[in-house]
Amino acid sequence: MRYPTLLALTVATAFALPALAQQAAPAQPNTASATTAPAATASGQAAPAAQAAPATPAATTTIAAALPTLPNHSALLRLVRAAKLEALLSGPGPYTLLAPTDEAFGRLPPGTMDAFLAPANIASLTTILKNHIINGAMTADQIKAAITAGGGRATLTTLSGQPIVATLENGNILLTDAVNNKSYIDTPDLRETNGVIHVTNGISLPKLG
Question: CA 24, 26, 30: angle at the middle one, nearest 5?
Fold first, then answer.
């Protein structure tokens, strides 16, 4: 899968200059599937439909406790710990966490992670991370329902106080942040005891300063 090329200047200058929109839209994940008619048997009758998948096991841990177990999320975990947001994500919530992958952070310019982690920038880092947390647990189906109810778009207010706009493209949820960066929900509905995690293929930035 081809992931988005996040504009280097967007985050590299986020602490000092107005954020810029990324140059290219991200590729859509392969999560949408078309509905097909049941296959016909040799007798000409439709074959029985496949049985529904077993129910998802009940969640047993919080979002904060689940983060260290998620593959490809070590960068996000490091930043969450630096911003001391583990207590928040261990709380009752419920919350929806948009969780960018290590690949998303790896596309940032050299030195950006160090800038994030500098003591002088922890307040800005906290705002950036809170821009990935939505108050209330929203599954992918609930986000899609909100998009439909909103006439094709849903405004999701994050804990940073800034919105992310959700729309649909070919059945996939597209997220557009306050500075016009775009990402898709790649792996939805990792359910935890205090909310839900959606893996995303890009970073959602707030306006800073």
Answer: 155
Q: What is the pLDDT of residue 27?
A: 64
Comparison of pLDDT for 137 and 23, the residue scoring more: 137
Say what the pTM is. Answer: 0.77
Which residue from 163, 186, 205 is spatially nearest to 26, judged by alpha carbons? Answer: 186
pLDDT above 60: residue 38: no
- What are the structure tokens assigned to 189, written together? 């509905």
Q: Rounded to an integer, what distance in angstroms lies between the CA atom of residue 153 and that of residue 71?
A: 30
Q: Note whether 97 and 89 are within 8 A (CB).
A: yes
- Is the pLDDT score of 47 beyond 90? no
Rounded Cα gap, residues 187 and 100, in angstroms: 10
Cα–Cα dist 127/122, whole Å: 9
Q: Are strands 195-200 and 95-100 parallel, antiparallel or unpaired?
A: parallel
| Nearest partner of 24 among 45, 56, 46, 2, judged by Cα | 2
> 70 CB contacts (<8 Å, ≥6 apart)?
77, 99, 190, 197, 199
Closest by Cα among 103, 117, 97, 128 to 205: 128
Average pLDDT, the chain: 80
pLDDT of residue 112: 87
